[in-house]
Amino acid sequence: MKKEEQPLMTQNQPNGAQPSVPEEPVRVNHTARNIIIAVLVVAAIALAIFFGTRAVNHQNDSAKGSKDNPVVIGVVGATDPQWVEFTKQAEAQGIYVDIKDFQDYTSENPALDAGDLDMNEFQHLLYLANYNVQNHKNLQPLGGVAIYPLGLYAAFDNGKPKYTDISQIPAGSTVAIPNDETNQARAIGVLKAAGLVTLKGDWTAFTIPQDIDDANSKIKVVPMKAEQIANTLKSGSDDLSAGIINNDYVADAGLKPTDALYQDNAEAEESRPYINIFAVRADDVNNEVYNKCVEIFQTKPVLDKLQENAGGTAVLADKFSAKELQGFLNDIEQDARDK
Asked: Region annotation Disordered: residue ranges (predicted)?
């Protein structure tokens, strides 16, 4: 049964009883306890910072390339056979590397510039030149890797190429080229070298279709998305007689590099912008460990794996010195500023 609340007694209550007064709550002084807790928290934070700093300093104190402080290299395709072999060969020579995989081609240079990477290897000189000029940066090449030739392929008819020789391409017919800035200029260079187009002036890595002298060229040029060119050629469309296909799409189209009617000369001056390179920050161009990494990558066991991965299409560019590559980059950057 619920107990009824009892009224407080008043001065008018019988028997002269004194009114009851509620007891004041006991107020405990927690100042000392709070001070102790605060001191303990501060001490814990200080210890965490101390040991965290010791751990970082321990890594920084370790020589670059050691197990505790590996060389961090950004790539696209970290599991490709050349990187597996490179890692093995580097460790055999006492250099530990950490191959960081990227899924695109836009993050590696900012990561290198920010110090999150020590090196990267995913781009050619033209890509690096554009990045430096557009972002006011100064990343530099440290060593060459390879050039991948760009090929001209014939359109198909009933499942077979219409032409087996470049001389068979009809005058006045249309040839497709990739419409992205980098491959567009290179494709025009391929057509120029093949004698299919004439330019109004000198070719540069920034040449565009408007620089073609149509009146004095054998064929007409139409830019298209790179991934569409192979499919259009294979479909047997009468709109195209031939097209430049990026290496990335050759196999997807069921073609082989040897099917090309013409390929650019990967050793020619016009091909220099397309040399794939290792890149570092400008302050690291003389870093002995990073240079050693390039030397290890350029050894036969690693390059054999690179060729295996490229289906034998790579033209090695491992004989260029860092100084030569830096000179090429400087020229390309000047062209980029002048365009």
From this structure: 1-23
